[in-house]
Write a structure and sequence with these properties.
By secondary structure, the protein is of the alpha/beta class. The strands form 4 sheets. The chain has a 9-stranded mixed beta sheet, sandwiched between helices. A 5-stranded parallel beta sheet has the order 14-13-12-15-16, with helices on both faces. Helix 5 packs across helix 11. The protein is globular. The chain starts with a strand and ends in a 13-residue tail after the last strand. The chain binds xanthosine-5'-monophosphate (XMP).
Length: 510
């Protein structure tokens, strides 16, 4: 199988680069720059290398550098942003740090004739994010693109097959970014494109079959898309050695626990243990209002419940989790700063009773996880189920969590979901749910004054949940939901609709 190495220098778009390569049907592997040597790169047989961006300046004494011999391997290399500057620096070009030359955001790019830019307009928009810049291409390189501020926006040494771009072709804001990556892969690395999602499934199943042979594997099943896909993938690899534990923490949506049980036990014949832990979670959460504390408590309690179950089952070597890539970066697992600690990553307590955690989907984006689900023959209804966060309704109730508030929210949420579905809108919005605020307001019902809670309806449209737009749900759908919620759910006097995108807001309210 052809494969490309994404050599990671700590930039924020590294997984996105790998994903873009996969989109062009080529397998990409990400390795931290300090976890692989030039000799190992040679042995692995990579057909192309991409140096990622990174937050440093090549002149920082602590900035990541690499063995210069990599430039002489004869493997085509594309350096992106910091990766491009590093390549210029290693090849003795001129990299300059200058405050007044920084470029951020959409910039007009002018390209020359070069195979890297085949099919690319002479001027187009690219995405820049840099302070240092290359003032002079190294010897042997020609300048093949520029911007107003950046004399060397792209450079090429065709004889050594070394290429660098100062901008980010992997982000969608770069108009021809996908085309340029495609050119690098197919015209410069001369790849054939032999990778498909089936290959991911096959190689993961084979990998785990071998690695987890004869071992008991425990899967934390939430019933959401990610953990379901992870569980079924592992079931394919280890069969009955997989035990799924489904914790009903009392923070689930209406009817959800029953549906998970039906699907996994009856339909897929998977060993399923359902733990009723509502009281345990609610007592731990009692009096807690701070969102991050809620998440941490739920994350830790999850692990404790699994540990207790694992003890009953006997020796369990591996714990499977449905962590996907956006969870990893938003929890600050790499160099990116922490936005929220997703319970399945940042909230893990340090003392754990398992030998190892297995996260088969850690490198994938949501839509890729869905593709894996379809390849595993998981029913579409489950594969396209909207995401539901691990901490459940706890992060959709502002303030303290009580059973009464949970029941209220469950009812309001079920009505909203039903109305979206009845209107045929469940596929044009990616996530939709109700939030229960702690704002009380005055209402009137019949001739009576009421004083009750406020529900917020939230619906977002997004590709990858890293950014999201609020969905333009038709007014009449919102009206029906609002009228039903105030009529059918006790204690609600007001319903509002959230019209904030991400950023600046996040999808969830906490
Ligand atoms: P945010 O609120 O971070 O949500 O913009 C992005 C996506 O992630 C989901 N989400 C979570 N999923 N554990 C999860 O498994 C969590 O702690 C968590 N927090 C948010 C959220 O529902 C949305 O789909």
């Amino acid at each position: 199988m052809e494969k490309v190495l994404v050599l990671d220098f700590g930039g924020q778009y590294n997984q996105l680069i790998a994903r873009r390569v996969r989109e062009h049907s080529i397998y990409a592997e990400i390795k931290a720059y300090n976890k692989i040597t030039v000799d190992e790169i040679k042995e692995e047989g990579y057909k192309g290398i991409i140096f990622t961006g990174g937050p440093n300046s090549v002149y920082d004494p602590s900035s990541p550098h690499f063995d210069e011999r990599i430039l002489d391997l004869g493997i085509p290399i594309l350096g992106i942003c910091y990766g491009c500057q590093l390549m210029a620096y290693m090849a003795k070009g001129k990299v300059v740090s200058a405050e007044n030359v920084s470029e951020y955001g959409k910039i007009t790019l002018t390209v020359g004739d070069h195979p890297l830019f085949e099919g690319v307009d002479r001027t187009s928009v690219c995405w820049m994010s840099h302070r240092d810049y290359i003032s002079e291409a190294p010897e042997g390189f020609e300048t093949i693109a520029h911007t107003d501020m950046c004399p060397v926006a792209a450079m090429a040494d065709d004889s050594r097959r070394l290429y660098g771009v100062q901008f980010h072709p992997e982000v969608t804001h770069t108009q021809f970014g996908s085309r340029m990556l495609c050119n690098f892969l197919y015209r410069i690395c001369m790849l054939q494109g032999d990778w498909k999602m089936e290959s991911f499934v096959e190689s993961k199943v084979a990998e785990y079959r071998e690695k987890l042979k004869g071992k008991k594997v425990l899967c934390a099943l939430s019933g959401g898309v990610d953990s379901s896909v992870a569980a079924i993938l592992l079931h394919k690899a280890v069969g009955d050695n997989l035990v799924c534990v489904f914790v009903d923490h009392g923070l689930l949506r209406k009817g959800e626990a029953e549906s998970v049980e039906r699907t996994f036990r009856d339909q897929f014949n998977i060993n399923l243990i359902k733990v009723d832990a509502e009281e345990r979670f609610l007592s731990k959460l009692s009096g807690v209002t701070e969102p991050e504390r809620k998440r941490k408590i739920i994350g830790e309690e999850f692990i404790r419940v699994f540990e207790d179950e694992a003890k009953k089952i006997g020796k369990v070597s591996y714990l499977v989790q449905g962590t996907i890539y956006p969870d990893v970066i938003e929890s600050g697992a790499g160099d990116a700063s922490t936005i929220k600690s997703h319970h399945n990553v940042g909230g893990l307590p340090s003392v754990i009773d398992f030998d190892e955690i297995v996260e088969p989907l850690r490198d994938l984006f949501k839509d890729e996880v869905r593709q894996v689900g379809l390849k595993l023959d998981i029913p579409e209804e489950l594969v396209f189920r909207q995401p539901f966060p691990g901490p459940g309704l706890a992060i959709r109730i502002i303030g303290e969590i009580t059973k009464e508030k949970l029941d209220t929210l469950r009812d309001a949420d079920a009505i909203f979901r039903e109305e979206i579905k009845n209107a045929g809108f469940e596929h044009s919005t990616n996530q939709y749910f109700a939030v229960l605020t702690d704002t009380l307001s005055v209402g009137v019902m019949g001739d009576e004054r009421t004083y009750g809670r406020t529900v917020v309806l939230r619906a977002v449209t997004t590709d990858d949940f890293m950014t999201a737009e609020w969905s333009r749900i038709p007014y009449d759908v919102l009206e029906r939901a609002s009228s039903r919620i105030t009529n059918e759910v006790k204690g609600i006097t007001r319903v509002t609709y959230d019209i904030t995108s991400k950023p600046p807001a996040t999808v969830e309210w906490e």
